[in-house]
Automatic annotation (TrEMBL):
Coiled coil regions, renumbered to chain: 2-59
Annotated stretches, region: Disordered: 130-161
Keywords: Coiled coil
Name used for this protein in its record: K-box domain-containing protein
Gene Ontology cellular component list: nucleus
Biased composition (Basic and acidic residues): 150-161
Keyword field contains RNA-binding: no
Signal peptide limits: none
Record flagged with keyword Coiled coil: yes
K-box domain mapped to chain residues: 2-98
Pfam families: K-box
């Protein structure tokens, strides 16, 4: 019985040593004893592993917006219940049925939105995923299109009279 336990222990030690060697090689260490074919197999294993990791990362990144959206919905629902609870403290005449919302029109805006309103342009920019965070110094390019003609000397010296 003792002899069989010793054999099993030796087998487990050998297997452990092989696994440790395999782990070192997967980490790019202790590659000295490998021939070209073994190196190519190791490279293939590493490429497959890297590909699997990248796919998993992409899937997780694609899942993030839906996770955040779910969180937002839960927050909205909880805020809605708090609002309803707070409304119970006020009489119905104190609470307006609606809020009058009218966006403020911007006159002489310095930003050119390409014919679209600033809100539409901003929404479109968010949907496309691009935003301009560049700081432009100096006067905007579209503000000074119409320049006054230089004033002529209104007070000319007419010495001929």
């Amino acid at each position: 019985l003792h002899k069989q336990d010793t054999k099993e222990l030796d087998v487990l030690k050998d297997e452990n040593a092989k696994l440790q060697m395999k782990q070192l090689r997967l980490l790019g260490k202790d590659l000295a004893g490998l021939n070209l074919k073994e190196l190519q197999q190791l490279e293939q294993q590493l490429n497959e592993g890297l590909s699997a990791v990248k796919k998993k990362k992409v899937r997780q990144n694609l899942d993030l917006p839906s996770i955040y959206f779910t969180r937002v919905l839960h927050k909205r629902d909880s805020i809605g219940s708090v609002i309803e609870e707070l409304r119970g403290f006020f009489s119905s005449t104190d609470i307006p049925n609606y809020f009058d919302y009218r966006p403020v029109e911007r006159k002489n805006s310095l930003i050119n939105y390409g014919g679209a309103s600033p809100d539409v342009a901003y929404d479109s920019m968010i949907e496309r995923g691009d935003s301009d965070t560049t700081l432009h110094l100096g006067p905007p390019t579209d503000v000074y299109h119409k320049r006054k003609a230089p004033e002529r000397d209104a007070h000319s010296n007419d010495s001929g009279s």
